[in-house]
Amino acid sequence: MVEYPLLFFPKALAEPPSRRGGGGKPVKTPSAAEQQARLDDRFRQIAQCIQDMQASVQGMEPEQVIVLETIGDSIEEFAKAVAQVPDLEWLAEMDLEDADPADGFSDPEKADKKLPCRLYAVMSNQQAMTQLLSLWKNWCANPGERAKRNFGPFKDVFVHLKDIRRWDVKDRLAETRVVEYWEENLSYERGQIRFEVELWCREDEAKRRIAYETLTSHIASAGGRCVSQAFVPQILYQGVLVELPAAQVRQTMAAILDESYTQLLRCEDVMFFRPLAQSAFPGYAIEDEDVPPIEDATAGSLGGNQSWRYSTECRLSTTTCWRGGSGLMTRTISQNTTSPDSSSMAPRWLRSSHMGTWERRANLSHVRFTSGRS
Question: Cα separation of 67 and 271, whole Å?
Fold first, then answer.
């Protein structure tokens, strides 16, 4: 009898279908004067906040994640424009929930129609924020002036800008449902609670290392530890598997309710705190000791609808799927340890060639690929 994995899914929630799509007339936008009156103080407050920050222990110049929320169509090639500003680093682009028309934004054909929103996140230090503020002032003063070469997307962002703010604790918690995950674990767990911390994936290796060291320090101060980390540049991902004592997680929950946030929750390097999703497999005994380690087993590069079939005859106890993906495996599976102890397993990744998604497995130590194709 074939034994299938036991998957653990969160409670299903009903959500309205997405109404995004092309076509239609552009969103009606407020004037430059209206935008300046509404947002100028926010630009200045962020610039002052970065200026007031103290240098980090490592001597790095203070940085903060700046969020620009826009209304209307997505801004083309904004990432390329960000790269034109020294020390301003592109981090992420995300869809937001559609918003009611307000502050001069509306659909030209249906005034009460909800409008598509988008979030752009950039990392900025004081110098970069000064340049961003200068671009903003220049647009407010001369909205009809043609933008300099490669800086046109900034003008489009300012035209459609709904809000500018700092990435904060609520951003790190709200969308991932990690708070509900902690609550559920605290109902029965008295030892250690594991969860994922996704860091902002920086281009510079030294900055990624410092971000990990900073997180490690905060976790250690709370009585926990960082179990393992994964860096996947193809999808701009740097994640860390951490564990904290249940008592400390309970204190963190109380701090969230009181909005007296801990250093861990306020860590600028953290993008998201995520639940630890799970899928459990039964263990299999392998008599053939010639099964190669995962780092030596490759699925090859495939095209079309061809795919390598791989055997579930693996040395494993529990597999944790962090990012779901479906499709063909087309990359070498890597591992950092061959220990069968699930507490010391480092993340592994499987690549989906069609969807471009990844699946991370926490403790797969060996795998056998069959010679046939499906």
Answer: 12
